[in-house]
Design brief:
The protein is α+β, with helices and mostly antiparallel strands and 321 residues long. It is 50% helix and 10% strand. It binds iron/sulfur cluster. Iron/sulfur cluster binds next to α6.
Length: 321
């Protein structure tokens, strides 16, 4: 059986209009067949350009990064020199596939998509996630995702979400702001999402004022955030599994819950710090959160450890999962 996220069918890349880029902040593995193809290119200038920007580590080839973390083949206008001079099928397998995440699980083929792509993030923020099976919709909108969760040994729909934004949430918010501040320097790609932790940098903030700000945020975004969290927990259980099948369930659940809380905290900070902040920007927050949390093996490991440490410090969370 083939299962795929329904967005796969209608996905369209924003190319030069993309506010992010796919090829920043992580090592782009270039498969051997593509290296041979690049080495055999007739266009000498392009051939030398590509080969001189490959680096070899542990017997594998990768594209080199510019100082801001972007791939060396990416131009100022956000377009890739290989795609500009050749075509999409000429890209290496990693770039051709992105943002798709594919795997074979217990005999079935699964394809999800990475939320670091703003198109995917917008879909997760705005629409109910659906899965298709072998080109047709399954028995119902969630037939596929329920099946994913069963495969992962998780019968219920995702993880518990919808935190009451009381004392525990506030404690987590402060800890996340502090923990992320320590890790942001290691995130070369987009070190700071505008407004993300501004709220927590205020010198004098009374409990009453924060409670009022939370109420205002809930009125404006509470319902959409809850729907998003339900959406995301089911989607992310599976996509995280595709990215890191070796992870323990505990690590995966902390990761997903941490990403959901981080998204909520950043949206709260942006909304409360700037009354003109548009909820449409929430999907860009999500793409940033996903990049910060999942790109780069060393940083993502530290982020996961931060989530685990923060969440175990919150009374009652471990029992809920
Ligand atoms: S992140 Fe998504 S929209 Fe942006 S360039 Fe990559 S595939 Fe296209």
């Amino acid at each position: 059986m083939n299962y795929y996220l329904d967005l796969c069918a209608g996905f369209s890349c924003l190319a030069g209009d993309c506010p992010y880029t796919c090829c920043a902040g992580w090592n782009i593995l270039v498969d051997d067949a593509s290296v041979r193809r690049f080495a055999g290119l007739e266009q000498e200038g392009l051939r030398e350009d590509i080969l001189s920007h490959l680096t070899k580590k542990n017997g594998k080839y990768y594209f080199m990064h510019q100082s801001d973390g972007k791939c060396w083949m990416l131009e100022e206008d956000g377009l890739c020199r290989i795609q500009r001079n050749l075509d999409e099928p000429s890209l290496c397998a990693t770039c051709r596939k992105y943002p798709r995440l594919a795997a074979r699980i217990r005999g079935d083929h699964w394809i999800s998509m990475a939320a670091s792509c703003p198109v995917v993030a917008e879909y997760l923020w705005q629409q109910k996630v659906g899965w298709r099976t072998s080109g047709e919709r399954g028995d119902g909108p969630d037939a596929g995702s329920s099946s994913v969760l069963r495969q992962l040994g998780r019968e219920k729909e995702g993880l518990p979400v919808g935190w009451e934004r009381g004392r525990a949430w506030q404690e987590i918010a402060w800890k996340l702001a502090e923990g992320c501040a320590q890790l942001l320097l290691e995130f070369r790609e987009h070190p700071y999402f505008p407004g993300s932790f501004d709220y927590f940098e205020q010198e004098e903030l009374s409990e009453g004022r924060m409670a009022e700000d939370i109420r205002s945020y809930e009125r404006a975004l509470g319902a959409q955030m809850l729907a998003f969290q339900q959406n995301y927990s089911g989607y992310r259980l599976f996509s995280r599994y595709l990215e890191k099948p070796e992870e323990t369930e505990w690590e995966r659940y902390c990761q997903i819950q941490g990403e959901i809380l981080l998204m909520d905290v950043i949206c709260f900070s942006c909304y409360s710090s700037d009354p003109g902040w548009s909820r449409k920007e929430a999907s860009l927050v999500l793409a940033w959160v996903y990049r910060f949390c999942a790109h780069g093996s060393r940083l993502s490991q530290k982020v996961n450890q931060m989530f685990q440490k923060i969440l175990v410090s919150v009374e009652g969370w471990a029992e809920k999962t």
